[in-house]
Structures are given as structure tokens and as C-alpha cells.
Hints:
The complex is a heterodimer. Chain A is an all-alpha fold. Chain A has helices at residues 31-48, 54-85, 87-91, 96-124, 128-132, 138-171, 175-182, 185-208, 214-238, 241-249, 255-264, 281-304; strands at residues 7-10, 16-19. A two-stranded antiparallel ribbon of chain A has the order 1-2. In chain A, α4 runs antiparallel to α9. Chain B is of the alpha/beta class. In chain B, β11 and β12 form a beta hairpin. The A-B interface holds A 1-3, 21-25, 27-32, 34-35, 37-39, 42, 51-52, 121-122, 125-127, 129-137, 307-308 and B 57, 60, 62-63, 81-82, 84-85, 87, 89, 91, 93-99, 104, 108-109, 111-116, 119, 123, 126, 130, 156, 160-161, 191-194.
Amino acid sequence: MVPHEESAVVADAQGTVFDIGYQRYDGPREGRGRARFAVFKNGVRTALGLGRGVRAKILPWAFIILLAGIAFIMALVAGAALRFGGPEAVEQLPSHSDFYGIASIFFFVFAAVVAPELLCPDRRDGVINLYLVRPLTGADYVLARWGAFLFVSLGVAWLPQFVLLAGLVMGNPDPVAYVRANWLDIPRILLSGAALAAYTTTISMMVAGFTTRRAYASVFMVGLFIVSTPFTTGLAQEIEGLGGQWISMFNLSNIPVHVNDLIFGEVSSVTSVAPARELPAWLLVAWYGLWVLLPGGVLLERYRRLTP
Amino acid sequence: MQSFPRGLTTVEPLVAAESLTKHYRSVVALDGVTFGIFDGITGLLGENGAGKSTAIKIFLGLLQPTSGRAVVLGEDAARSITVRARLGYMPEHDCLPSALSAAELLTHMAEVSGLPPSRARTRAADTLRHAGLFEERYRPIGGYSTGMKQRVKLAQALVHDPRMILLDEPTAGLDPAGREEMLDLVRKTHREFGISILFSSHLMSDVERTCDRIIVLQGGRVVQSGEVSSFTTETETVFVEVDANRDVVMEELRARGVAVRVDGAGLHVEGTEASVYDHVRDAVVSAGAPLRRMAPQRRALAELFDREDDTWEAR
């Protein structure tokens, strides 16, 4: 039998079943760009549990709802304070600049729980072997996965801030005047949200790149953030001066919050007690950059060298 | 690219290994091998560690050769990633996600091979139909049998309609029935779909029954290559199989002065001249034995390679 050969089988008096045989594909082949986008799209769906059972959706959506819920409550409290205490009472309440400081721990746990889902199963099940024999390099694969989780993290970081913004605008007797007076909060939210998302994405993906077990990656990541905070805070209080400031720099939870403080031009409630806040702004930004670039480089190099 | 003479013509191979060498520190995986793989089913035969998987990884551009060159579909495998869009690969080891359905996996893999999403979905369904998994395509792969999983592995290598597929031990872990089904599917892939195949295996019987040509590797070197038919020539015996009275047939043949020996359910009769067939006919009639099969015996590949002293050199 040759390809494209057609055969027909008479099924009954009313109809005919045609077996058109194997068909060669002569449509478009969109190469490496399509391959990267396919991995990116699949990563976004995996992170959000789309197209999967209920169990896969519970954790990511629980965190999204929790973070949006915190922002919603902050907006409600601000609205109530404005009504009963006036603008001065609202000034005393935490707002956009404080949000990431308050909620950063939930972002870290979200990243710790969801990011391994994008890398660990592919290596544990051997699916990575099917990716790497296609028009896709290891670097393409991991960049597409990193991009997918960054995309989701940006949404998770920005959504609550915009819920809060919407609450503050609608709670104000003159919404237009509020937007005119506070429009700079929008680029600040976008920028500080992006800084937080890039930081959590890169570190959590790097941790996930070194184990095939999701649970190990999650526990390690949560441990890293939970342990570093009390340890560095306590030690920094004991050792005062420059030494204490540098120890405070190793509080992993605070690293993106310092950048957030610089973007909003005010110290948030979380970093107000951190000695590192007294260090020069350029050093805080460079330190943040190091904590994004170094794990990112390690992750990229690990996947660049990966062969089935 | 090096051309290879085949018969009276010189043709360009689909895959060419040109003085290909690969070292892993002090271990020599491939030692300056040169061979071509042409249209059809080519068996890459050799024991574990012979260099088969290393050769396949170099053809896929996943490993860089220490020296020499691999040319795949006209492109240097070490430099071209895009050539992989026209290749398919079926790994030996587990590579399937248990939570996904075969349809989801194949659709995704078709997209990763560069097909647009709508075409990827159609190709996935078509390919699973040809692989015999159409009815089960929406079930999670984790619930599939080993044979079904092997078919999914083959289907993902075919979903983007490659020019050539590379199969690494495709019958590994299969029971005899599953193995036969897989070999049928491999043959069908070439004969009906028109896709060339490199079939890597250490099982000579699989290669013999499936491939047109073989390349035998040992210790990173090519020790034999050629058409399978040239290795499995006819022997000087006739194989006779009867449904009953086998021992009576044997006595009848011996009474006629014909040398005969028992082999399992059948008899090996010495000689291939016409008179031998006449003696067999007469003996079968005299014994009243129902004749099932009578044919010249062909050599099996396994008979040609002396493996007792761990060598795959031809005897």
C-alpha cells in the first residue's frame, strides 16, 4: 500500500465508510517561535490549573483569592475610615506602598507551591526528553517556562493592587479628583509588582530546577524565606552598625520590599525596622538585581547543559 | 555531504555519519564511524554501550561529536536545531506524563514541533487513530498498559509528520504479543506512511523481522552493515512442519536415505535439490501426515553473529 491510497469499505446499504489512510502534513511549520510559545502557553495553563481537575486549581486560585481578599479588606477599611475619620484617618492606614510588604509572604508561598509544577514533573516523568528533541533548546524551554510563571506572577501581584485602587477610587466622594491626585500610584504599582514577580519567579524556578520532587522544592523555598526572616532580624539587632545592615540584607523576604520602598518613595511598615533600609539606594537595587540575575543565570545554565 | 554507492547508483543518505567520534573523558563511545542511512527501515544493532544511543543523540543535535560530522536531512546536526522539526524520536525510557491524556500530549507536542494549534489538534487525533489509540485518546496516560504507552511514544514521534523517525529500543518491556504489535506498527509506519526509520535495538530477531538494512555497532565501531537479506541467505536445508505423525515422516525419510533432524515442532531435511522435495512429498503421503509448511530454511541474524565470546563479528 502506498501513502495517500484511498480505500472504501461499504458499511451498509445507506452509507459508506471511507478510510482515507495516512495523510502527509503539508501545512505551515512555524519553527522555534511556535515551539517557545507552546511551552509558554502550556506553562501558564499548568500554573493556573487550567484544563486540569479541581485539585490542580485549588492552590493557585486559593492564593489569588487570598491576596485579592487582603486588598479588598484594605479598601473596605480605607472606605470606612474616610467616612468616619476623614482623610487624616486614611493617611494613617496602610496603602499601595505597604501592600507588598504585608502580603509578600503569601507571594513567596504561592511561588514555592506553584513554580515547581512547571519544571519538576517534566523532569521526573521524562517529558523533558520529548521537548529537547524538538526545535527547542534547553535554554528555550526554561526561558519559556520562566516567562510563563512570570506572566502568572505579574497577574497575581497586580490584581490585588488594582482591587485596592478600585476600592480607594470608588470609596472616595470625588473619584476623578482621587485619580488625578494619585495617578502616579499606577506606574508605581506596575513597577514594584514586576520587581516582586521577577524576584519570586526566578528564585522559585531555580530551586525547582534542582529537584524532580515538587514537595522538596516547595518546602525548601518556604523554609528559605521563613528561616531567613527571624534569623537575620534577630542577628541584625544584636550586631549594630554596618554589619547589622548587611545581615539585614540577607532577609530574603525584604529584598524586593526595599525596591518597592524606593519606587513609592516611602518606607513600608515591614522594612521600617530593617537596618538595611539605611544603606544607599543604589546598593539595595544592585542587591536585588544580584538576587534575580544570579539564580536566573544558574537556572539557565543548568537547562542549557541538559541532554536527554 | 558524503555520498554512498548503493547498487549501480549513488544516492544521498538521509543521515550520514562521517568519521564520527565521541569521547566521554577516557571512554570512547564512537570511534570514527562512517555510514549512511537511506530511505527504508535501517536497524542499528549492538549491545548496550555499543554507541547506538550516542549516535542517535548526535543525529538529533543533542550531543556534539568530538570529531567528525553528522549530516541529517542535508543539514549539519551539530548546528541546526530547525532540522528537528523534520525528525521524530521515540526514547527508550519513560517519557510520558501520567496525568495528561494522549490527545492532550500529542496536540502539545505537535505545537512544540511548530504546527499551529488547530492543525496540531487534527494531527494528534489522526496519529492516534493510526496508532490504534483513537478510542482511548481522552483517558489519562497513567491508566494505559505498557503496550499502549509504547504506542503513545511512537505516536508523539509521528504527530508532526517527520521525514524520518529514530526509535530507541521500541520493543523494550513488551510481552510477545505487544512486541509483535509494535513491530507491525513500525513496518506500517514506513510502508503505509512513507516515513523512513532508524530502528535501534539489541534484539536481532526484531531487527531481522522489521528492517531492510542493518548497521552493527560494537565498541563504538561499525563491524557489519548491509541489506538484511544479504545476511539471511538460504541454507542447505529444507524445513518441514507437519501437524501429526512427525516421527513417522522422519522414519520414512531416513528409509529413503535422506538425512533429517528434529527441530522443535519441525524437521530439518538436508539438501535443497528437487529430489529432496520429492522424498518429502512421498514420505508425508506414506505417513499420512498433514503438511503445514515446507520451505528452504533461511539463516537467522542470530546465527551469523558469534556472541559467546562477546563479539558481534560475523562468523
